[in-house]
Amino acid sequence: MLDLLGWTADGELSGQRLLEPSCGDGSFLLPAVERLLESARRRGTLSESALSDTILAFEFDAATAERARQGVGDLLVGAGFDAQASRRLADRWVRCEDFLLATDMGTFSHIVGNPPYMRWSKLPGVLRRAYEEKLPPHAARGDLCLAFIWRAVELSSPTSGRVAFLCADRWLRCAYGAAARMALAKTVRLATHLEVHAVPVFLGSRKVGAYAAITVLDRNLNGAPAVAEISSIEELHRRLSGRQAAVDMTKPGKALGAQGGAVLAGPKLAGVFQKMVDAGVRLGEAGVEIRCGLALGSAPVFIVGDDGVDIEPDRLLPFLRTRDLTDDGRAVPATRLINVWSAEGALVDLSAFPKLKAHLEDHRAGLGGRACAVRPEQWYRTIDRVDLARVAAPKILVAGMAKASRVAMSPGGAQPSNALYAITSTGWPLEALFALFRAGVLDVFAEVLAPRFSGGSKRFDGNVLGQVRIPLWSSVDSALKKSLLDMDVAIATPRPELIADLYGVRAVGHRSALAAAMVRPVASAKST
């Protein structure tokens, strides 16, 4: 990563400044100091006065900060500095302070590190409030990593600054990062993005839940991003040692400033993706509606099986979860939802349903303490209201998390959970749209746009689905219409040729990239 930034021992580092916002024991800091000392030795600038303002690192924990100072001091002594000068430089270079709240730093030509990842909602309240006062709203949300990225870019030199972070890449794909991405695109470009999801890039046996990437942001807005998916440490070494991360991907600024999510793909897939975007309109513009399923607020209370729960039958609805989507494209509910809403959208009067009332009263303490029950008389509500008209409508169901798209057709009459997205259509025949989804079109868009999670799962959420483009049904060739309507949808089979024809993708290389993006894992047991 220091190579990617240009912080090298054989380079001219005098007059440059390096920032490490969360140095820990010094995984980045110590190699950076070694390179600085070697560069200064070669150029005859190895003195305290010449180097005093060259490096600045932050560490929140006092004991860890002291270990980093000791490591820096040892390197300085080894380079010929006496103990006093080594300690002065180490103290100056390593500050035990909260980087996000620090002042008097100046700007930096090189910024590198591994910023902390923590969901914003999990931060201690006092810290969260302090950060929110310091940062713009679009940087103080989602996760702490985004705040570090924003602040680092602010501190990068306006003319030559570069930021290289090993960090979770969800901010580039998830909706919470959209406003920050659009704002950042005005001053920096995504220069390099090396996806290292499956690579053990952290020391020891450390378990990291968030998928990581090496991301380089550059103040030089000219040039295209270099994107690559790295599969091994050996490949990562080859990429970094050659200082050539990957070939150019797409037009300058496109990746970071894209609406909805960064476009992260290799050159062939990026090319076919752009053709598909240009050939279609968003689902909503094609007469397709996307809605998340029902949020409950207490699933164990509101979801029941057929195991003898005694509740009035007209208060029960078939309920669909991800596990109910079958491999042959059907949606078969295995549980039922306790419906506390009337057809008019009001909470039912429990006195009219004594069995329902008894069941809910058994759980009253827990139900009444939920955030959605702000009005005491609504203690038994679900987070979302049940809309019986939407329940009755035929719909396509898309699992919100999957390795490859999982879609099923529901004839109507069952309520989807909030782990599913319900899709209805007035612009496309629902059967043709279902066939298109079963043919793998969602996988192409998810390969470029979707966040990745543990086990290789992708998020097929409203943010990703809302960016899917399809041609208007009225513009589809009659032969292709017939192919879609006649398609055997019992098996989800990638059909890259059909999709290529639908979107007008003619280049052989683009068609092969399309096929590669639609590779599906072997069907497995139902997931929860």
Provide structural commentary.
34% of the residues lie in helices and 15% in strands. It is built from 21 helices and 20 strands. By secondary structure, the chain is of the alpha/beta class. The strands form five sheets. Strands 3-2-1-4-5-7-6-8 form an eight-stranded mixed sheet, sandwiched between helices. A four-stranded antiparallel sheet has the order 10-18-14-16, with helices on one face. The protein is globular and about 85 Å long. It has a domain at 289-517.
Strand order of the largest sheet: 3-2-1-4-5-7-6-8
| Gyration radius, rounded | 27 Å
Taking the alpha carbons of the first and last residues, their distance comes to 39 Å
- Residue fraction in strands: 5-15%
Individual helix count: 21
Topology diagram in text:
Blueprint: H1 2-5, E1 18-20, H2 29-43, H3 48-51, E2 55-58, H4 62-78, H5 83-93, E3 94-95, E4 110-113, H6 125-134, H7 144-155, E5 162-168, H8 178-184, E6 189-195, E7 212-218, E8 226-229, H9 233-241, H10 254-257, H11 267-279, E9 281-282, E10 288-292, H12 299-302, E11 303-304, E12 316-320, E13 335-338, H13 354-361, H14 364-368, H15 388-392, E14 395-399, E15 401-402, E16 407-410, E17 415-416, E18 420-425, H16 430-438, H17 441-449, E19 458-459, H18 462-465, E20 469-470, H19 478-486, H20 496-503, H21 508-517
Parallel strand pairs: 1-2, 1-4, 2-3, 4-5, 6-8, 12-17
Antiparallel strand pairs: 5-7, 6-7, 9-20, 10-18, 11-13, 12-13, 14-16, 14-18, 15-19
Helix pairs in contact: 2-4, 4-5, 11-21, 16-19
